[in-house]
UniProtKB/TrEMBL annotation:
InterPro entries referenced in this protein's UniProt entry, alphabetically: 3-oxoacid_CoA-transf_B, CoA_trans_fam_I, CoA_transf_AS, NagB/RpiA_transferase-like
Keywords: Transferase
GO molecular function, one term: CoA-transferase activity
Highest taxon of source: Bacteria
Organism listed in the record: Paraferrimonas sedimenticola
PROSITE patterns xref list: COA_TRANSF_2 (PS01274)
Gene assigned in the entry: liuG
Descriptive protein name: Succinyl-CoA--3-ketoacid-CoA transferase
Length: 219
């Protein structure tokens, strides 16, 4: 069975490490904030000027003035700090973020990512994605493996305008955890109940499949 958006975020949360500074992009990545392991110190950074985001608020602790880069209301942890967007992007461009989690429309075998524009559709702009992919070495992409028509979003070559070139190495979809190495996608894990054959059928790019593909552990 394919993963839900929450389960994708749950799998990504396993890549967090104590002391990490982490930027969560708009969409599925924001959900990772709800799955930080107990006892782990992780500081979440937002492009709009917040370091130290917490979980999404309940009705009791909602502050309409406290938002993330996607204009969703958030909470702030003890020790959080606020600053200008200029300082925020200086952190990002300076390589001070340990892990970046982004959504995407397409990813290809060369580690290229298209995440900001679909021609013919109204958009507000690229946001901070271009800076994030340029300033981070450790990036995880979260996305659906295929679109609503069943067309693969894991491609030999991106067809949409690119956000970044050669910057992606890890992808977590609703079907699988993939790594990009040597110009190919490598199947590392499959979602619980999802067959290897289904992943192969929904992957347009070259996919290296080991003899044994373990199921993801979600906890």
């Amino acid at each position: 069975m394919a993963l839900s958006r929450e389960q994708i975020a749950q799998r990504v949360s396993q890549e967090l490490q104590d002391g990490f500074y982490v930027n969560l992009g708009i969409g599925i990545p924001t959900l990772v904030a709800n799955y930080i392991p107990d006892g782990m110190e992780v500081m979440l950074q937002s492009e709009n000027g917040l370091l130290g985001m917490g979980e999404f608020p309940t009705e009791e602790n909602l502050d309409p003035d406290l938002i993330n880069a996607g204009k969703q209301t958030v909470t702030a942890v003890t020790g959080a700090s606020y600053f200008s967007s200029a300082e925020s992007f200086a952190m990002i461009r300076g390589g001070h973020v340990d892990l970046t989690v982004l959504g995407a429309f397409e990813v290809d075998v060369n580690g290229n990512i298209a995440s900001w524009m679909i021609p013919g559709k109204l958009i507000k702009g690229m946001g901070g994605a271009m800076d994030l992919v340029a300033g981070a070495d450790n990036i995880i992409v979260t996305m659906m493996h295929a679109d609503k028509k069943g067309n693969s979003k894991i491609l030999p070559e991106c067809t949409l305008p690119l956000t970044g070139v050669g910057c992606i190495k890890k992808v977590v979809t609703d079907l699988a955890y993939l790594e990009i190495r040597d110009g190919k996608f490598h199947l590392v894990e499959r979602a619980p109940g999802v067959s290897v054959q289904e992943i192969i059928e929904k992957t347009a790019a070259e996919l290296v499949v080991p003899a044994e593909v373990p199921e993801m552990t979600l906890s």
